[in-house]
Design brief:
Blueprint (H helix, E strand, L loop, with lengths): L8 H6 L10 E5 L11 E7 L17 E7 L2 E7 L10 H14 L3 E10 L9 E9 H4 L22 H14 L3 E8 L8 H9 L4 E3 L3 H9 L3 E11 L10 H25 L1
Parallel strand pairs: 1-4, 1-5, 5-9, 6-7, 7-8
Antiparallel strand pairs: 2-3, 3-4, 5-8, 6-9
Length: 272
């Protein structure tokens, strides 16, 4: 594994195939949500393996390529897949692709994930706009800014841009879609949470839980990017449900909601 300190986002970005204007919006597509990249028009595709220093996903549902082109009338760079702490990467490596998006010219980040629904009002297949997050690994010292260049003491107030949240809610209403809103909690994984852990997460105010996203948003804020976060509720993480969860359920739900998810993201891009 290449040490994160040796990675140069400009070098990785320089290997990305693209034509025309630089992308202004970066998309990070989570588990089961990568098919949105198939809707990008006039697309160029670059495998992560061709990009020096770009960490390569090792989880089913994360194909590992950058797709640059037009979506919703915007020039976008879509990352199909991400890496995670539980794969053995440090937080700086997990968030490195955000630095690559910044080097490509992206000033807005739409970050997506699959999440378990902690809020009993949520249903499997719901979409949720992230209003805030609880970064449990970061609270334990696993921040992507440890040892990183640039300003480290950044404010995380309004890390998820409130105007983008309202924009997404308006777009969802226009499409006749229900878009939940709430707080996303990140845990390190890869094991799913115990019932006692799920109770703890609800007590501290989380509406959904997953194993990604927060390191990327921290780095995006360090770089001055506007962020919109969207979670797909792929399973219910209710402490008394006693129903085992597996990764295939996550991917199957992503497949089921891909049309609504793509319509929402495209509408947001059109409205930016």
């Amino acid at each position: 594994m290449e040490p994160s300190a040796r990675r140069d986002p400009a070098v990785a970005a320089g290997a990305v195939r693209r034509a025309g204007e630089p992308p202004s919006v970066g998309l990070i597509l989570g588990s089961g949500l990568g098919e949105l990249a198939e809707r990008v028009e006039d697309a160029t595709r670059t495998a992560y393996a061709e990009m020096p220093g770009m960490p390569r996903p090792g989880v089913l549902g994360h194909s590992g390529e950058v797709v640059v082109g037009q979506l919703g009338g915007r020039r976008v760079a879509a990352l199909r897949g991400r890496v995670h702490l539980y794969e053995g990467h440090d937080a700086a490596t997990v968030a490195f692709p955000v630095r690559v998006l910044d080097a490509l010219g992206c000033k807005t980040l739409i970050v997506t994930n699959a999440a378990g629904g902690l809020n009993p009002a949520f249903d499997v297949g719901d979409l949720m706009a992230i209003e805030d997050h609880i970064f449990f690994p970061g609270l334990a010292g696993l921040s992507p800014l440890v040892g990183a260049p640039g300003e480290r003491f950044i404010s995380m107030v309004d890390a998820y841009d409130p105007s983008l949240v309202e924009l997404a809610l308006g777009c969802a209403a226009g499409l006749g879609l229900t878009l939940r809103r709430g707080v996303y909690a990140m845990v390190a994984g890869p094991s799913f949470e115990t019932p006692a852990e799920l109770r703890l997460l609800t007590v501290v105010g989380a509406d959904a839980v997953g194993m990604s996203t927060a390191p990327e948003v921290v780095v995006a804020r360090q770089l001055g990017m506007r962020v919109l976060g969207l979670s797909c509720i792929t399973n219910l993480a209710l402490p008394d449900a006693r129903k085992p969860v597996d990764h295939m359920e996550v991917l199957e739900t992503g497949e089921r909601v891909k049309g609504r998810f793509a319509s929402l993201v495209t509408a947001v891009l059109e409205a930016l």
